[in-house]
Design brief:
By secondary structure, this protein is α+β, with helices and mostly antiparallel strands. The protein is about 15% helix and about 25% strand. The protein has one helix and eight strands, in the order E-E-E-E-E-E-E-E-H. It is elongated and about 80 Å long. The protein starts with a strand and ends with a helix. The relative contact order is 0.12.
């Protein structure tokens, strides 16, 4: 898995260039056959797209983004999941001049993590389309148990 963030550049010919911040990109390598733990390394790769299309998908009825690689081959479409979009800032999250690890924080500089006001709202409050369960699994279990009991009684009586 790879993730990075940075800035984008829209050229006059319609092409799109994504320029990541070199110190913020990460690549997660998970190979349980070779390593007992996953390996997290720095990652930096500029992406160039020949063109892009943004429109409302007629089937899903949500915003869709189509990207085409530098050679014109299409990538998988991306759909808008949150409105407004949840995005990282357009500045580095790890302000270091080199690609080395950040210094250890002192006791007084650590931020307290807890369940405060910011976690009072559900995380999916801005989701464009919320999934709903087609049926209640508890009711389905009781229906199955009842049918099994009826089948047992019917087997013994008839």
């Amino acid at each position: 898995m790879q993730w990075q963030h940075g800035k984008m550049q829209l050229a006059s010919n319609g092409s799109l260039a994504l320029n990541p911040f070199g110190v913020d990109g990460r690549q997660l390598l998970s190979n349980p056959c070779s390593y007992s733990n996953a390996i997290l390394t720095r990652f930096n790769q500029t992406e160039n797209f020949q063109r892009y299309e943004a429109y409302v998908d007629p089937y899903h009825n949500v915003q869709r983004l189509n990207l085409y690689r530098f050679d014109g081959s299409p990538l998988n479409p991306m759909y808008l999941a949150y409105k407004p979009p949840q995005m990282l800032p357009t500045q580095t999250l790890n302000p270091t001049s080199t690609g080395t690890a950040a210094p250890k924080a002192t006791k007084g500089s650590k931020a307290r993590r807890g369940l405060g006001e910011e976690n009072a709202l559900p995380l999916n409050r801005n989701v464009v389309k919320k999934r709903s369960e087609p049926y209640n699994a508890d009711n389905l279990w009781w229906i199955g148990a009842g049918m099994t009991a009826l089948g047992g009684v019917g087997y013994l009586c008839f």
